[in-house]
Specification:
two-stranded antiparallel ribbon, single chain, 171 residues, mainly alpha, disordered N terminus
Length: 171
Amino acid sequence: ATMVHAVTNLTIMPSSARGLKFWTSAWLPVVVAIALVAIESTPYFGADQTSGPLRHIWEWLFGPVTDRHWHIIHVLIRKCGHFSGFGLVGLTWLRAWRMILPAAPFLRIELLALAGCALIASADEYHQSFLPNRTPSPRDVLLDCIGALVVTYAAHWVLRLKAPGRLTKAI
């Protein structure tokens, strides 16, 4: 049998050990994250659709706000959604690549995760260019990628603190 160069805890994992359960475990979270991005990229999640419900929640929590201030708050909430949402998407990509390439250096895995996020973010913005109430923006792609970078890098440091010997090939 051919051996895959996947080393986990000094054990070489044969390719036959990577069955459907392994691949599903690795990639299903990525597929779910991409599906959520696709759902949020519909006309139903445009700024014109989210403003009312989010303002209602904001005012319930913090009290009334002027229209001018609400516009700024709404933009910030939506941009924080880009950052944090793609941070989580980045974690799903990072997890999948770490499972597939457990012996690879962190930087290589993070770059693969960021490439996946950049691809999805670009496709998301391209898709929005066809929707009447959505505005595509390269800045949103950049914000998405920064969110993924920050969260995946933070995850790396948490893992280093939690299990220092496991990430010896860090950067």
